[in-house]
Amino acid sequence: MRTYLDFEKPVADLQGKVQELRSLGDEGDAVAINDEINRLEARADQALGEIYAKLTPWQKTQVARHPDRPHFVDYAKALIEDFTPLAGDRSFAEDAAVVAGLGRFRGRGIAVIGHEKGSDTESRLKHNFGMARPEGYRKAVRIMEMADRFSIPVLALVDTAGAYPGVGAEERGQAEAIARSTEACLQLGVPNVAVIIGEGGSGGAVAIATASKVIMLEHSIYTVASPEASASILWHDSSRAQDAATAMKITAQDLSRFGVIDTIVEEPVGGAHRRPEETVKATGEAIADAFATLDNLPPDEVRRQRREKYLAIGRQV
Description:
By secondary structure, this protein is α/β, with parallel strands linked by helices. It contains 14 helices and 8 strands.
């Protein structure tokens, strides 16, 4: 059963009427019922297109968090051949919130790192809702250093509300682990590409998204803190999350203008969750294009271009 967001109520109502008519089956005038179904579906498609053509930043936040959006495992399954997960940070533990490993992307060897939120109660608990602990970022550093050693490009798939803020995580050096992971991204002599596939929340996202090329899905978000947290800090009122979302410029369109990201991948009308296979395919094309611009560059040039990219952020608007 499809999950509708609050602002999609007009579409939900129309689709509900469609389901009611379909449940009538062969009762009554089948031709008339089919005509009415077609008319209502056309109206629903039109309403959906009108809604998604003018989403607010807060509505985009809701779309980015939709539980049915394709997750890391969906991208890895569709885009990465022979994906072999690698576990553990060689220091404390395995963190399932960050999934990492080696595989092949369109014939080339690649290291893949990403957040996995999970798709049901059991998997969400296993993956801690995509909120990584320090060992998750130390695992990411381990994979990046190995990729650099063997000249393997790195792909990061970002989808997290932020790093896990629990006491244990802080005791084990959460901030230091995030900083080390960000540093590892910047020091890579191989190209790295990051894709914000849902939420790009705070340092938890930056830790693996500080890449040569950063791609965002059309209705994803990338932010220094969640709108709710920002509203609490700024106005001591989390109910003003909508105001915070607008003020912080967290959408792909805003971030492209500021030079924070490089490419926006269009989503199907109604969001990635409505046609996930189409979204994953389009994302694969964007990833391939990003790596193509970085091919055959020597390590020093890769580092130089990455450094210049981040130094230039915000200088031209």
